[in-house]
Automatic annotation (TrEMBL), chains A, B:
Entry coiled-coil feature ranges: none
DNA-binding region ranges: 35-54
Identification of the protein by name: Transcriptional regulator, TetR family
Keywords assigned by UniProt, alphabetized: DNA-binding, Transcription, Transcription regulation
A Gene Ontology molecular function term of the record: DNA binding
Pfam families: TetR_C_13, TetR_N
Lineage: Bacteria, Pseudomonadati, Pseudomonadota, Alphaproteobacteria, Rhodobacterales
Domain (HTH tetR-type) ranges: 12-72
SUPFAM superfamilies per the UniProt record, alphabetical: Homeodomain-like (SSF46689), Tetracyclin repressor-like, C-terminal domain (SSF48498)
Length: 217, 217
DNA sequence: TACTACATACCGACCGACCGGTATGTATGT
DNA sequence: ACATACATACCGGTCGGTCGGTATGTAGTA
């Protein structure tokens, strides 16, 4: 009987290791293409451990989305872009921060919940809702700074802070898709650059069009 | 032997019907979650017909991406946004056209190749490349108008036409993700509105920030 | 301290359903 | 007659999920 007396290393954290494996493997292969065995192997646990912690594969999907929401919330909450006193500077620092963390391998910088949303939006409402909560919850953390910047500068905008916050997430998600299409993270950063230029323009910073011959036209 | 003498309706177009089924079903369920049997049932053909026309499921994925590229090329080539004499008007008319065709059910307006890219970018290079060719091939059709608009207006830009064309696709793809997250196509249109505002700003059209008290500041 | 009772965490063999793909046969047009 | 375009049956393998069992830790009791 091949019962290994040597128990698994770090007993008790199988759940976390599965969630971390899900975070990385699903970003590489997608949710449907990732098997439970894939996750167990990547996490170094057995199938029994998997179904001890998660009732179904879908339940793991929900848990992975929630884990993503928690960990990214902590990451952004502790990021330095909150430092500036000027709210607009905070918004621009946020965008710069987002741009800065794009790089390396695709599975390292792309968004788990964006990936899962795309796949399961029509077939697994529970996962989709958990993903949506993560995306829009994060967007909501931008809203206050955007609105404060708008009010402070007296911008009489046709757009709302809520809408612009959502748009930033759309641009990021779209940039990730282009990056995946070519395997080049530059394409994601490129779209963030356009987004930064857009936001600066909305707030009247120096992005007015310049003619090559004259600045008046 | 339950061999139905009644042959399938419209013999000879099984391939096209499979491609159309793939276009719609994959947009709903994703590529990996769509089985060959799903496609056959949706197309009203048998598994034999499927493997007669496509060597593997992946080969269908490539063919579906190419079919998507062909049909959308035809759609955009025949669209009315090419009419204006002014190249910038054509660009803005394109964006308006894109906005106008967003609506209804998710699987009716979202992008097949964007969806597939997200899923298979790391595991099926052939499909990914076919998707990338569709996305960037379409972006390239915008490049001429954008560059013409830039040259005509003498804009001394920090961005390239190629980059802006790619960004339009990123915004659309990202908008689709947000729309899928909530089931509401308004979110996709909302991001296109931001994109339109951005492009207008790049070309000096009336989107300068307005303070609520005065237009000078 | 020693023993019991019990919950939690985990193991891995196993199951039935389903998957992509194949083998083989047949209807139809030329 | 022959090639093309299908249909049907089926295979080997993989999938998500189940289940009986076993370590391990903890609380209670005496």
């Amino acid at each position: 009987m091949p019962r290994p007396t040597k128990q698994s290393p770090e007993r008790g954290d199988a759940r976390t290791r599965l969630l971390e494996a899900a975070r990385d493997v699903i970003r590489q292969k997608g949710f449907a293409a990732t098997s439970v065995d894939d996750l167990c192997q990547s996490a170094g646990v057995t199938k029994g451990a998997f179904f001890h912690h998660f009732k179904t594969k879908d339940a793991l999907g929900v848990a992975a989305a929630n884990y993503w929401a928690e960990t990214t919330s902590a990451l952004f909450a502790g990021a330095p872009y909150h430092k500036p006193d000027d709210p607009l500077d905070r918004v621009l620092a946020y965008l710069d921060f987002r741009k800065g963390i794009i790089g390396g391998e695709t599975f390292e910088y792309t968004c788990l919940v964006g990936t899962m949303t795309q796949e399961v939006h029509d077939s697994a409402p529970a996962i989709r809702d958990a993903c949506a909560a993560s995306i829009f919850g994060h967007a909501a953390t931008l809203e206050a700074d955007i609105e404060a910047a708008r009010a402070q500068r007296g911008i009489d905008a046709e757009w709302t802070a809520e809408s612009l916050a959502r748009h930033t997430q759309a641009v990021l998600q779209g940039g990730f898709i282009l990056a995946k299409a070519t395997g080049d993270s530059d394409l994601a950063r490129e779209s963030v650059d356009h987004l930064i230029r857009y936001v600066r323009g909305l707030f009247g910073l120096d992005v007015e069009p310049q003619t090559s011959t004259t600045r008046e036209n």
